[in-house]
Amino acid sequence: MPGTKTNTIKTTVSFAAAHQPYQHDYEPIVMLQQVLNDALTAFAIHPDGTSRYYFLHKGNEADLTQTLGEVADHAHALHLRLRTETISG
Amino acid sequence: MDLESQLRLKQDVPEVGEFLSSISGSLVHRDTDSKGLYWAAIPSASSTSRPFIARIAWTAYPHAAPSVLFADEVGGATTDPESWPAAPGYRAPNDICKPFTAEGQALHSEWRTGPHAWRSAGNPFLHVVETICGDLARADGRRAA
Questions:
Q1: What is the CATH number of the domain that holds B79?
Q2: Do B97 and A19 touch (CB under 8 A)?
Q3: Which helix H or strand E contains A32, and what residues bound it?
Q4: Does any domain span residue B145?
Q5: For B59-85, how does the pLDDT look when each residue is reduced to its tens digit (9 = 90+)?
Q6: Is B45 at the interface with chain A, CB within 8 A?
Q7: Residue A13 β-bridge partners
């Protein structure tokens, strides 16, 4: 319905090797995998399969198959930390 | 180490120290250490085990990856495999073959471009330490010897 406000989740992804965090308002049904894809694009990271990218949330690795709503647990804002693991080396 | 590198390091070091403190670790730079040399004490996953000591040496900050080795103590030797974690790519006691180290970048010229290229944006020191901590957590406290 036009003009209807939805309950979006203000999502922030911080990455130490970036000048600014990635921020976007998402619907709660969006999966973390989608946020990860968007964040990688924002940070100009183009995965080639030799690294793994993941989120830390409250100190633990987040399940990328979960939705933002599940992870946020009724909160209207969510802070995720992007980390990398090199698979080849 | 040039003055620009020293100033940038001085700017980024507090955040690294705060991160390590948040996981019960610490960052050490002694007066006797060269300008770009730091020692990161990172708790082992095994609470009864002594911490890992990462020797992180910057030559040009933030434009080049640091040398990263593991020492038996702050200021100590890096030649004992027991000081090194048993993590993939960590080749005790010689080097860490990963994109975030000078040793890895020197060995893999193909890492100069693409997703493994060194990133000088943000706080590269924090990025290196966070990445090491992630690798150590997955190693679950295991040592190379």
A1: 3.10.110
A2: no
A3: helix A32-42
A4: no
A5: 999 999 999 999 999 999 999 999 999
A6: no
A7: A22, A80
Distance (Å, whole) CA A86 – CA B97:
10
Say how far apart CA B4 and CA B18 lie, in whole Å: 23
Residue among A19, A85, A89 minimizing CB distance to B134: A85
The amino acid that residue B116 corresponds to is: H
Contacts of B14 (CB under 8 A, 6+ apart): none
φ/ψ (deg, to 5) at B54:
-90, 125
**Tokens linked to A26:** 């998402």
CATH class of this structure's domain A9-86: alpha beta
What does the alpha-carbon distance between residue B84 and residue B144 come to, in Å, rounded to a whole number? Answer: 6
For residue range B78-117, list pLDDT tens digits in order: 999 999 999 999 999 999 999 999 999 999 999 998 889 9
Residues in chain B, overall count = 145
- Cα-Cα-Cα-Cα dihedral of B56, B11, A60, B81, to 10°? 10
Through-space distance between the first and last CA atoms of chain A, rounded to whole angstroms: 52
Q: With contact defined as beta carbons under 8 Å apart, do B82 and B23 qualify?
A: no
The minimal CB distance from B99 to the residues A19, A45, A86 is found for A86
Supply the range of the domain harboring residue B19.
3-139
pTM: 0.94
